[in-house]
Amino acid sequence: MSHTITIEQIVAKTTDLPTIPAAAIKVMKETQLASSSAASVAKIIVTDQALSARVLRLANSAFYGLSRRIVDLPEAVVVLGMKSVKNLALVAGTYPWMQRPVTGYCLGPEEMWRHAFGTAVASQIIARVSGKASEDVTFTAGLLHDLGKVALSVWIENKMGAILLYAGREDISFDEAERRVLGYDHCQVGYHLATNWNLPEELCEAALHHHTPSQATSHHSIVDCVHVGDYICSAMGFGLGGDGMLYRFDESSLDRLGISTNQVDSVTDEFVEKFEEYETLFTEMAA
Amino acid sequence: MPPANQLLVGMAEIKVAKGPATFTCLGLGSCIGLVIIDEQADVCGMVHVMLPESFKDKPVDKPGKFADTGIPELIAQMEKLGASKSRMIMAYAGGAQVFKYGSDSSSRLDVGARNGEAVTKILKAMGARILASDIGGSNGRTVTVNAEDGEMRVRTVHGGEKTLCSLKRARRLAA
What we know:
- The complex is a heterodimer of chains A (287) and B (175).
- Chain A has 287 residues and is mainly alpha-helical.
- Chain A has a single domain (7-20, 99-286), classed as Hypothetical protein af1432.
- Chain A is 66% helix and 0% strand.
- Chain A contains 16 helices and no strands.
- Chain A has helices at 7-13, 22-31, 38-45, 49-59, 73-80, 82-98, 111-130, 135-144, 147-156, 160-170, 174-182, 186-196, 201-209, 220-235, 252-257, 261-286.
- In chain A, helix 4 (49-59) crosses helix 5.
- Chain A is globular.
- The model of chain A has no long low-confidence stretch (mean pLDDT 89).
- Chain B has 175 residues and is an alpha+beta fold.
- Chain B contains three helices and ten strands.
- The chains are: A mainly alpha (287), B alpha+beta (175).
- Chain A binds chain B through residues 106, 161, 164, 173-174, 231, 234-238, 240-242, 244-249, 251, 254, 260-262, 264-266, 268-269, 272, and chain B through 11-12, 26-31, 50-53, 55, 58, 65, 96-101, 107-112, 137-140, 157-158.
């Protein structure tokens, strides 16, 4: 098949590409340093007024149930914990574009958000249960795994039917059909964006290999957690678009993580319980 | 005319009603929406099953979550409204699977296939009258049932909406 436009052209020509506020990326990098502290993280947050307001709002929310009001940003970081602040910064920074419809993939308003956030929550639980990956890094990797879909949406809009027909005729998965019809899939587009943003390597790797975890060249555990988390979130019906569940599940991810089927069922149960609680909290803070 | 009793059946929920009502399970992935109707008693109910089997080491918080607890609980709640097991007619939809699971019976994980198998097995063991089912495939489904005429509709993103069956007409035809 002929491919009319390259990934580079897509990124260059797509107006309204997703972005992440610079402060959110700086917070993410700062929290990964051994030298980071509540004060150093707070110093970055104060450069972004909207983010500062959200962090304070969260610290004073009923969720944390503190008896006194927190007005000091470094104290808010201590109360929430640096990892929560990092996740909040990313959630707040991605929500504005993730909650929009992604019409190319037949996702209505909020559906991409529900899928991204759901995958983040499910992947984080998998990371905890397996004990093989950092929970908060895995949360972030889950949140951003499908960002390629947002960029590819306008380009795929009139091709979705053809890709689905092609996948059915050739008996292949949706990402494979994307590669054959377009020349690349949403994973590769996401990887391209993530590397352009200079995101940490493990997040780029998860965006690239969340449907092909055995092909990951590094950070296997995080990629495996996101692969399983994406499956659980899709199975529970959160943000299923035109591509539905037309993806392969690589069971070797479970073997590498040392997770049994029974554990997947109990993670699924925990995921659904936590999703609503977290969703209300983060949506309120991010809006 | 006032709007009918519109019931949204969320994950792990069981809803029952006597008289006019519509029941909807929104965006089912691997979950299953099971509908039961007793036309004579004018009672209808729906359960949104998430997983095939309750955990042996954990108390069941919501019976509707699992096929093995949700189906008996739905029947019990309908009986309280005057329905009789012997008159019940059932249909179900959902259980979407990831690519290639359909032909790979050795798969350990596939929640969609295990949900479908569990619901079918439990209903058959009860000797239930299963009118129709629409399970498997890779698409998400939204399932709606109108208790008044018994019409069960299934909508997918690309397939549009189709009528899976009419639970009341089947009973009349069988009578």
